[in-house]
Specification:
519 residues; TIM Barrel; Nucleotidyltransferase, domain 5; eight-stranded mixed β-sheet; 21 strands
Amino acid sequence: MNAVVGRGKYIKAAMNGGNIMQPITEHKGCRASAKTGRASCGSQASQGDLPIGIWEKVKNHPCYSEDAHHHYARMHVAVAPACNIQCNYCNRKYDCANESRPGVVSEKLTPEQAARKVIAVATTIPQMTVLGIAGPGDALANPAKTFKTFELVSQAAPDIKLCLSTNGLALPDYVDTIVRAKIDHVTITINMVDPEIGAKIYPWIFFNHKRYAGIEAARILTHRQLQGLEMLSERGILCKINSVMIPNINDDHLVEVNKAVTSRGAFLHNIMPLISAPEHGTAFGLNGQRGPTAQELKALQDACEGQISIMRHCRQCRADAVGLLGEDRSAEFTNDQVMKMDVQYDLAVRKAYQETVENERRSKVAAGQRELPEVSGEMAAITLLVAVATKGSGLINEHFGHAKEFQVYELSTSGAKFVGLRRVEGYCQGGYGEEDRLSAIMRDIRDCHAVFVAKIGGCPKSSLIKAGIEPVDQFAHEFIEKSAIAWFRSYLDKVKRGEIQHVQRGEPACRLGNRISAA
């Protein structure tokens, strides 16, 4: 069994039947910020929290910066069809244009086609700053196609950041190539550091021209993943760790995964919910394995947040996703459409547009900071959650009935902190409200005191009020943080005057939260 033996010391990694005690590199990255009180190397870090070199790498990367995801777009190109492992939560044969899920693509591209598509997207969407290769298989199981694509894009569009996602099995063999290609961001999916748990997630791997199964496969995989992460960290590559939360399999164990990756210099940890709908045809979907509730996911993310920051704004994107996180414009850029486009890449136009974006971003931050002094120090024990309907740009700009997701913020006298997403099915369908969907939405945000919307109909408004969730529509099209803090200040005033009594919303601590707090 892989067991972490003392944080920052050693981990037992069995390779081909032999137990090897491997040193864990002391983490050199995250430190708590004196200004914010949170770890300084994660998705919610600001310019003042980070060394300038790292800030330049993350400031407009929508996956590595929570604030940037409101303003900047990314795209993935599907040039890597082959995979060297099998996951029980993955089925790359399934595709639906409306499905947002890793491994899903509508068409596969050659490196040349991919490079042309990147230029077409970057010309049409000037706030597109990041190119990622995330499948539909594994980027490093298709090294020739992956690195050729990066080479062509670097030549044509040197301002675009390069990003690679991998399961990590082949990673140690390509660290030097990654450095030479000037890839500054690598995402590694690590779901376990215990092979016995890994055997429940991965049926097999293909390594060194041989297929391995069960615990032996998981031993090799975790050894290679952690080795690759350590090598990248030593070379100054920013590493994000993706972990899929699978209830009753690796949910508790992801706390140990978090410790292991933090000690090896990971920059950010993204703990995602298992997607296991039966119609996707995955092994977990077909055997009835459930995904976590929103409350269970938040409890685990909270338990893991410490020295390393937790990414909470992930949308579990398709391998051909285009646009802002939460939107997908890939249908506008099929290969046939791209070939018809008159593409003229203009770096000056892109820079000018992005400066406009930065000005808007600075205005949003300043607006939120102006509200903070008025709640600072008051009733510090009170914290609560609010849900926000937004289309992006950091604004409250979505109708309640049209929302496909709600962004959740934790409000306290320290300000507004983004803590997660709640995906929902839109309440309004063809102009009419679906009562079953309204009930589901209310279950998903039952731990929130309020929901901020641009507009809301009478029926859902009444139902929310009866459930004790305040619908807030007076801040339509205003900045989220500024509005949430202003509302929170008003809430505290009402508590102070005795007009309302603060009651913590939501159900009792979930099963996972109880186990973690008792540990």
